[in-house]
Amino acid sequence: MTAPRGARCGKQDPARDGPVDHEEDGVPDNYIAELPFGAPKIDEDAFVAPTAVVVGAVTLGPRASIWYGAVARADHETIEIGEGSNVQDGCTLHSDPGFPLVVGRNVTVGHRVVLHGARVDDEVLVGMGSVVMNGAHIGSGSIVAAGAVVTQGKQFPPRSVIAGVPAKVVREANDDDLAHIRGNAAAYYDRLPEARKVRPVVRRPLPPAGMVPGDALS
């Protein structure tokens, strides 16, 4: 799927040509759009949540997911998100000229992470609120602890547990760590069937002061 310029992409309505506008139902759509540098390429089995933004030369692989409020913007260099990877709520993904952002397979990118022009190999867990900067490389089977800052150009070998500001290796990842990484990625994939079911909340006015819901209005 390559999104048309300025498309808002929700689930398809067979009764009409194009995506459903969930804003009609009280649910904001995601925003998927072409930029002069390129257009998104999103696998049909990938998921982009309502309120997420995917613009420019972003490639999203099978079973990959971008969750609520996350932004992936590839306006000067490419972004690739591999099969089975999840980018959680509030993340920011960006790339700079000469610094593509590459996220491998079965990677978990925790809430509010910033990934900027870096390479994250397969089966990595990037903890909540961490930052990974241009030219950095996180080897496969690694964990980046919550709040860590991986500075520009920093290289970490496979199976590293990384923490701190600036981030450093604190120990080698073990088999339990790898099982945890794989479990996180699998859990987010398992959530996709429910996440695809958009169920708008019906908003009702609050009752007047002194009344509770269910009281008859005079």
TrEMBL record:
Pfam families: Hexapep
Naturally occurring in which organism (per UniProt): Blastococcus tunisiensis
Listed SUPFAM superfamilies: Trimeric LpxA-like enzymes
Identification of the protein by name: Carbonic anhydrase or acetyltransferase, isoleucine patch superfamily
Keywords noted in UniProt: Transferase
Membrane spanning stretches: none
Region entry Disordered, spans: 1-28
UniProt xrefs under InterPro entries: Hexapep (IPR001451), LbH_gamma_CA-like (IPR047324), Transf_Hexapept/Carb_Anhydrase (IPR050484), Trimer_LpxA-like_sf (IPR011004)
MF annotations from Gene Ontology: transferase activity
CDD domains (UniProt xref): LbH_gamma_CA_like (cd04645)
Compositionally biased region (Basic and acidic residues): 10-21
